[in-house]
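It is worth pausing here to work through a concrete case rather than discussing structure prediction in the abstract. The textbook approach is simple: state the sequence, then state the predicted structure, then interpret. We follow exactly that order.
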Amino acid sequence: MGRFKTNFSILGALACAVASSSFAGIRTCEELVARIQGRTYSPRITDTTLEWPKSINQHAETLHQRVENELLPLYRSADHGYFETSGGTKLAYSYFRANENAFIQSKPRGTLVISHGLGESRPQWLDQIQTFVREGYDVFIYEHRGQAHSDRPLANFYKTHISRFSDYEEDLHRFVNEVVKPKASGPVYGVGFSLGGLVSTFNHIKHPNDFEALIAISPAYQIQARGFPVPLVKGLVDLMVLLGKKEEYTFFQKDFDDHKLTLLRQHTHSADRWQVFLRLLERFPMTVPGAPTHGWISEILHANSRIQHLLPSLRKPMLVLEASQDTLVDPKMIRKLVTDHPWISHYADAKSAHSMIHESDSIRNPAITEMLRFLVHPERLSDSKASGTWTRLIAQSQNFSVRSEPAFARYAAEEALRSFRSQKPLSPLPPVLKETLDSTQTLLESSSSGQKGLYDFLIYYSTLELEKTRK
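Step two, the predicted structure:
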């Protein structure tokens, strides 16, 4: 870490800048330096912001203007359809194609499969999907059974119900193999949020060939029970199921109304993104969030118990994003399960509510940046088994250079070097690798202080992960 401390000290002297975004509570270059050197930091306001990749440097106050001009046209341009599960249930899905300007060697970087949260829908992810396709990823997203435009098991439109949690798991597995992989370009990655994060994690453990890597955002490894002890709630809902009331609303739940909106409003600090949510809700009334039944709560609580026992057996790369102010999912349980797990990279934001990627800019943008950093090289935890990884990283580095994103270009080049050395420690560097290292170093040295700060952030988190694998 010695050379990193020196670099960070120089950076701190030149660019102690207030970031428009936060890295798990870090808001300035100087604060980043202080954390690495183990010093106490006192916040102060200056003018220079850190710089993110262009497609992620987003401002929530302009988001409402993009709904009509960009997001809805993006939705209309996608391929929409339905696929049938083994039981004949029809699930709605959409397929968005990557922006050709971000291709690597004339192909998309990869394919993302989004598994959304409870009460969500495809239109509510358009903001994030636009970012992913601009970064060069094809995107598939489907809607869970009992939600939005997919088939619903009960006559009451507002009730969210499922007979078996394993149905969610089977739905994702079939969707990946029957719909996504026949059309997929490049490696396939999973992205799951909340309920979708829980479902995707089961999939990543039980079907490790479905995804090359997984990103789980605020995964529902343990739902919170409004302050009541979870074992008590579990016992009560199981009793209601035994009494034949599994299809009735669980405690304190009812049909959708303004009170439900008030509760949902607590999941993000961003007033602008909340207004966009309301506009999309008006435009797509089928996406109205439902409320769970006794049966649904019983199934997810049993799933919580299972995932807490199964997660240690995970053997594929995974990134878990924790919202530390989450009131819907227990962040302490996430921390307990993922800290020191050799295959899991852990990112936390101390100021985020549940919907981290629908949060204010200072939370949402760095979270998306961290997701992109992980997708650049999720194999960092299994280099010895990843053949040809360094060549793919070289292509990514060169693509970032063309797009004038020197921080990610240099980061990918150094990851390529590390990957090559892990496979061929005594071999001379290939000319293409040496040239890429030299050119990205020159590009970074001539870039802004904001790009240099972003690069140091990327290296810092990569260093932490490497240290974790050596334990």
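Step three, interpretation. Residues 382-471 form one domain. The chain is about 45% helix and 15% strand.
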